């Protein structure tokens, strides 16, 4: 039997069990994902700490988006287990109870390349929708929350506008506010600037930078913008063919990568 440790005011822990505050926000344990014969994620193990910001870079088709989709439970692993704050979110080969998975999934927010706003709803209504429908938040509270989030992304004056009346950069900022409305502890960003005109990319990246500085959310960022990948992250992961080739401190990895394949990739995207 392990030695019991009693944390301040907490429950008794076995010495082999981490206290909840030390559990990683995200953990992939030997995860593989295949589509037919194609192995897209190949025995991947990965941990993301609470409040850690991780950029995921690599050639097209290396499995970056699949990692985010696995975390959103839009895909299921073929093998291995994905944990969120220590709880099993998804596992290859065995079914998990929806009642256990749903609260974990609710801790994760995602912003997509295509903003996916509801076109028939105003910016304000887009941000209010999930808190009202999913969290059953009273409408006046959801409205106050949505207004404060639109202000936070610099769109205080645009609540009454429909997506078609907004620029791509503004729509993407509404999409960020919409994800934040569910108060996620983990945010996933999937190529959020790829569909944008160059002149509005900066305003979207500025919003993500301010979130990184002002919140404690864990962030997993997939991007082709190498400057952004470097500046936003505590750690950069370079992937190829569903595997981690190299990872480390952003300044170091971008300035002098150890792996020849990382070097080749960075030279090619310069
Ligand atoms: P990345 O984000 O690094 O560009 P993806 O994760 O989008 O890579 O895709 C990895 C590979 O998996 C690609 O070869 C892609 O074509 C394939 N893939 C992704 N989703 C599916 C799917 N639903 N069915 C079949 N193949 C898929």
Automatic annotation (TrEMBL):
Its main location: membrane. Transmembrane segments: none annotated. PROSITE patterns: ABC_TRANSPORTER_1 (PS00211), ABC_TRANSPORTER_2 (PS50893). Residues 26-266 form the ABC transporter domain. SUPFAM superfamilies: P-loop containing nucleoside triphosphate hydrolases (SSF52540). InterPro entries: AAA+_ATPase (IPR003593), ABC_ATPase_HisP-typ (IPR030679), ABC_transporter-like_ATP-bd (IPR003439), ABC_transporter-like_CS (IPR017871), MetN_ABC_transporter-like (IPR050086), P-loop_NTPase (IPR027417). GO terms for molecular function: ATP binding. It is a peripheral membrane protein. It is found in: Cell membrane. It holds the Pfam family ABC_tran. Keywords: Amino-acid transport, ATP-binding, Cell membrane, Membrane, Nucleotide-binding, Transport. The keyword Nucleotide-binding applies. Belongs to the ABC transporter superfamily. PANTHER family: AMINO ACID IMPORT ATP-BINDING PROTEIN, GLUTAMATE_ASPARTATE IMPORT ATP-BINDING PROTEIN GLTL. This is Amino acid ABC transporter ATP-binding protein. It comes from Aminobacter carboxidus.
């Amino acid at each position: 039997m392990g030695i019991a440790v009693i944390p301040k005011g907490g429950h008794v822990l076995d010495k082999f069990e981490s206290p909840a505050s030390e559990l990683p926000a995200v953990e992939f344990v030997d995860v593989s994902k295949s589509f037919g014969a194609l192995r897209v994620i190949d025995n991947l193990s990965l941990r993301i700490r609470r409040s850690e910001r991780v950029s995921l870079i690599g050639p097209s088709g290396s499995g970056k988006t699949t990692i985010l989709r696995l975390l959103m439970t839009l895909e299921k692993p073929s093998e291995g287990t994905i944990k969120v704050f220590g709880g099993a979110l998804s596992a290859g080969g065995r079914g998990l109870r929806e009642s256990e998975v749903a609260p974990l999934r609710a801790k994760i927010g995602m912003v997509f390349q295509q903003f996916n706003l509801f076109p028939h709803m105003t910016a304000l209504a887009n941000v209010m929708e999930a808190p009202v429908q999913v969290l059953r938040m009273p409408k006046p509270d959801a409205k106050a929350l949505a207004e404060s989030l639109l202000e936070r992304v610099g769109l205080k004056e645009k609540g009454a506008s429909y997506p078609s009346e907004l620029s791509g950069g503004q729509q993407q900022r509404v999409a960020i506010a919409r994800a934040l409305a569910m108060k996620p502890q983990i945010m996933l960003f999937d190529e959020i600037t790829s569909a944008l005109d160059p002149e509005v990319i900066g305003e979207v990246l500025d919003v993500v930078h301010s979130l990184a500085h002002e919140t404690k959310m864990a962030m997993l960022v997939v991007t082709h913008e190498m400057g952004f990948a470097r500046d936003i992250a505590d750690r950069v992961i370079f992937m190829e063919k569903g595997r981690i080739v190299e990872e480390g401190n952003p300044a170091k990895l971008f300035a002098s990568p150890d792996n020849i394949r990382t070097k080749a990739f960075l030279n090619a995207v310069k």
